[in-house]
Design goal:
Shape: globular
Number of helices: 11
Radius of gyration: 18 Å
Oligomer: single chain
Length: 240
């Protein structure tokens, strides 16, 4: 289910110079904000919760997930270079699984470490706020990668739809419409953060932890399965 050659090609595509700079931009901004806030206001649990929850988990993680998830496969489908992989004796399930693992690893690498560092800078990880959001970011990275990889197989506008989900559905509707929060990867991962953080930390989710875990697994499994189905029926020259 994992092919090193597919992984190497996908890493090369995702971590090219221009895309790597884009991936580094938000984590760098997070760390700069953390340093400035700590320098101006000292250690502050409330500031840590607002920055890690309101910016890092709510915006940075889904946006990096969009870049990694869609970028793992959408450009190859759009420019036709996916034909090279499909012509090789590699099962299409293996291609999808490998690309998903690469997208997950890239999303986790560019989100969890900066969030933990930012938590240490903001309040020395007091009440385990930094650790809680780091765990949430790791779990959310898996689900976002699967969902956005799926978008990359079903639409030529995968990035646009990914941004709509991340910025409009989760960031806008999720904050304005209570019901929308239950269909939010952010809220599902936040349920884990609530469990990891100390009792006094102001971290809450609208979704109960057992439900959140089930929804995270279902979203990841369905996204991966259907992405595999889309790639399985994708026609290339010589298939007919």
């Amino acid at each position: 289910m994992y092919n090193p050659t597919v992984a190497r090609l996908t890493y090369r595509a995702l971590l090219g110079r221009r895309r790597a700079l884009v991936l580094l931009a938000l984590p760098t901004l997070l760390l700069v904000i953390a340093v400035v806030v700590r320098a101006l206001g000292g250690a502050d649990d409330r500031a840590a919760t607002e920055i890690l929850g309101g910016f890092a988990l709510a915006s940075m993680v889904p946006l990096i997930g969009v870049i990694a998830g869609t970028g793992a496969i959408a450009p190859e489908i759009d420019d036709g270079s996916i034909v090279y992989l499909l012509s090789k004796p590699i099962s299409r399930r293996t291609i999808i699984t490998t690309k998903l693992l690469v997208a997950i690893s890239v999303t986790i690498a560019f989100t969890t470490t900066p969030i933990l560092l930012a938590g240490m800078i903001l309040n020395d990880n007091s009440q385990q706020i930094g650790s809680a959001y780091t765990v949430a970011a790791g779990v959310a990275s898996v689900a976002y990668s699967a969902v956005f990889l799926l978008l990359g197989t079903v639409s030529r506008n995968a990035v646009v739809f990914g941004l709509i989900y991340a910025l409009v559905w989760e960031a806008l509707f999720g904050n304005l419409v209570p019901g929308a929060r239950t269909l939010s990867i952010q809220q599902w991962s936040l349920a884990l953060a609530e469990r990891v953080a100390a009792d006094g930390a102001d971290i809450t989710s609208d979704v109960a932890l057992p439900t959140a875990l089930i929804l995270l697994v279902v979203a990841t499994a369905l996204g991966t399965w259907y992405a595999g189905e889309r790639l399985r029926v994708l026609k290339v020259a010589g298939d007919e």
